[in-house]
Design goal:
With about 375 residues, the chain is α/β, with parallel strands linked by helices. The chain has 13 helices and ten strands. It has a five-stranded parallel sheet with strand order 2-1-3-4-5, with helices on both faces. A five-stranded parallel sheet has the order 7-6-8-9-10. The longest helix has about 35 residues. It binds 5-amino-5-deoxy-1-O-phosphono-D-mannitol. 5-amino-5-deoxy-1-O-phosphono-D-mannitol binds next to helix 4 and helix 10. One of its GO terms (molecular function) is glutamine-fructose-6-phosphate transaminase (isomerizing) activity.
């Protein structure tokens, strides 16, 4: 049931705020103490964990990459993120102190399932972050942390991506709590920041959708798009690129903004659309100015630039041709808002081209073969 929306994808993007709030629900008390008893792994076992390897495919792997920045910062243990199909065949270094986190919306992705089986055979514990109760991946894992995004029908994953980030963040904060790598207050504040995100996502849906649609209409004949970002904006850029290629059949590439002059800038010719995820101008000043100079560099070569930037970021307004705005939020929270206009943009492009947004050609909702 599309509940009055034109497509499942449209409906599911509008469920982004609920996907975040439902995934947070019941997992902490009012003092900001995390309760992940549902995971059934002893706190002592978590305390011993000295490395995390995330295995996943597609959008789920980008959620893992976002979480890497947060978990390494909070827990001070290395987090590797690996495409499940690559992990399985490279003899990865796994010990009993490695926690393998398998992220999957469907819980049926064969590549991810094979990776977790391999990890368990090597004696590592596997925790699944999954959206589908009782599916194969959580059944075969040692523990599961469910995302509560609700059923996702459209082939292009949207609301599940946000829920996966939230669940992985909860896991990170829980590890920080048991290992004592963050103060109680810091954990509490971070949970408060997460709790504030649904209304910020709603703000983006309410105030930016029209601008996104107008921009999609202007760009309808574009043959390719480049997406770039830094830090947590980098996986967001890759996710935005994946959405557009999957449902609008446009050639896209998402890459780290710092790579620009190491190759991709050669692709920029007059009129080339470049989407740039701009970090907050507050706090991490260096990153902000570096990304702004990336906009200047591609603009100097004639690119049409679309920025996703914080409200009040005047540099973004000055240099980019179009700016999709996000409300102020801490850097680690920004992927939860920045991805939303990119989801809408892909949807609008596909709709304007008259394509079937829910069932794009050649793709299946869950890839159950290797
Ligand atoms: O069900 P899973 O989360 O394991 O699926 C992983 C990927 O196949 C999936 O995210 C795919 O990339 C989507 N079509 C992205 O929109």
């Amino acid at each position: 049931d599309k509940g009055g929306w034109e497509s499942y994808m449209d409906k599911e993007i509008h469920e982004d705020p609920a996907s975040v709030s439902d995934t947070l629900l019941g997992r902490y008390d009012d003092k900001g103490h995390l309760d992940l008893d549902e995971v059934h792994i002893d706190a002592d076992v978590f305390r011993q964990i000295d490395k995390i390897i995330v295995v996943a495919c597609g959008t789920a792997s980008y959620a893992g990459l976002v979480a890497k920045y947060a978990i390494e910062h909070w827990v001070r243990i290395p987090v590797e993120v690996e495409l499940a199909h690559e992990f399985r065949y490279r003899d990865p270094i796994l010990t009993s102190r490695t926690l393998v986190v398998a992220i999957s919306q469907s819980g049926e992705t064969m590549d991810t399932l094979m990776a977790l089986r391999h990890a368990r055979e090597q004696g590592s514990r596997v925790l699944a972050i999954c959206n589908t109760q009782g599916s194969t991946i959580p059944r075969e894992s040692d523990a599961v942390l469910y995302t509560h995004a609700g059923p996702e029908v459209a082939v292009a994953s949207t609301k599940a991506f946000l829920a996966q980030i939230v669940a992985a963040y909860l896991l990170g904060l829980y590890l920080a709590q048991v290992k004592g790598t963050m103060y109680r207050d810091e954990i509490h504040q971070t949970i408060d920041s997460l709790k504030a995100m649904p209304s910020k996502i709603q703000w983006v849906l309410d105030t930016q959708s029209e601008k996104v649609q107008e921009t999609a209409a202007r760009m309808i004949d574009a043959r390719s798009f480049l997406f770039l970002g830094r830090h947590v904006g980098y996986p967001v850029a890759m996710e935005g690129a994946l959405k557009l290629k999957e449902i609008a059949y446009t050639f896209t590439e998402g890459f780290a903004a710092g790579e620009l002059k190491h190759g991709p800038i050669a692709l920029v010719e007059p009129g080339e659309p470049v989407v740039v995820i701009v970090p907050s101008p507050r706090g991490r000043d260096v990153l902000h100015s570096k990304v702004i100079s990336a906009i200047e560099e591609v603009k100097a070569r004639g690119a049409f630039t679309i920025a996703v930037a914080e409200e009040g970021d005047e540099d973004a307004g000055r240099y980019a041709d179009v700016v999709f705005r996000r409300p102020q939020c801490p850097t680690l929270m920004s992927p939860l808002v920045d991805v939303v206009p990119l989801q809408l943009f892909a949807l609008d492009m596909a709709q304007l081209k008259g394509l079937d947004v829910d069932k794009p050609r050649n793709l299946a909702k869950s890839v159950t073969v290797e």
